[in-house]
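A quick word before the example. In earlier lectures we treated sequence and structure as two separate objects. From today on, think of them as two lines of the same record. Here is Right handed beta helix domain-containing protein written that way.
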Amino acid sequence: MTDYPRSHESPKQTTDAKSRLTRRSFVGSVAAGVTAAATGFAGAAAADEGEYETVTLASGERKTVTVDDGETLENVLYDCTAPDTHVTISATGTDWTVRNIGVKGRVDRKEAVFGVADTGGNTSTIENVYLGDGASDGHRIGLGIWVAPDHSGHLDIDGVNIQEMGDNSFYCSAPGSKGGGTVDIRNSYSANSWVSHFRLAEGTVENCVAVNDEQHKDGRGVWAWSPGSVEVRDCNLVMNGRHYAVASGANGSGSTVELSNTAFSTDYHGGLNEVDGGTIDVVDEADRRPEDVCPESCPESPTEAAAGQ
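And the structure line, produced from the sequence above:
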C-alpha cells in the first residue's frame, strides 16, 4: 500500500521570514530535520488511476508537505490561485517518491516549491509534475526544484514542467559542493525562468526543452557547476537570442559538459559559454533547429499531472 500524504493548513499570521523554506534555509532544515510553519505527513492509501485530491490554499496561506524515508506523495492538485499563496514539498531521507503533482496558479513567495535531497545514498524520484503556471513577477519570486547540498544519493526527475520562475527552474547544482549526489533530468520542460533552466553539478539532461521568449524572464539553458560532468543529450535549447544555451563553470571553478544530438540557439554570443576553466564538448552535433515543443510524456496542465495522465 502506498502512503498518501495529508496536509495541515497554516494561518497567515504564523508565516514569517524564519519559517520560509528558501534554497538557503532548506540546507538547515535537512540537517536538523526541521520543516517550516505548516506541515503534512504520509498517511493513507493511493488514489485509483485518474483520481486525485485537490488541496485549496486560502489567501495568504503557506503550506509545507513533508515526505520522508520510503514514502510516496502522489495524485494531488494544489490550488494556489488565491493571492499570496505558496506550497512547498519537502522530501528528504532516502528512497522517497513524488509523482502526479499539479500546482494550479502562480506561487507568490521567494521560496522553493520542491526542496529535496536523498541523504541516504540511494535513489529517490520526482515524476509527472506540473509547475507551468509559474510564479508572480518580482525578483527571485519562485523556485521550482531546489536540491540541497546534503544530497548524497541519486535523484531521478522525469516528466516535470516548470515555467516562469524567478530563481531557477531546476536548481540541482548545490550537492557539487558538499554531498556529491547526482541528478538525472529527463523528458522535462522549462520556459522563461531567470538565472537558469537546468542547473546541475553532476548528472544528465536528456530529451528536455528550455525556452526563453518574451513571456517572463530569461535564463541559461543548461548551466553546469563544479565538479561535473554533465551530459546533455537529445535536447532542444531555444534561447531566441536572450541567453546562453549552455554554460560551463561558475564561481571560480570549472565543470565539463558533453553535448550530443542537442539543438541549441547560437544567436547569443555563439550560444556556448566556458568560464573558470569549464569546458563544453559537442560530440554529436544535431542536424536540426531547436524546437519549442513539450516532451510527449511531460504534463501540460495541473489536472493532467495530478491525474497521472
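Notice the following. The helical segments are 25-32, 302-306. We will return to this example when we discuss secondary structure assignment.
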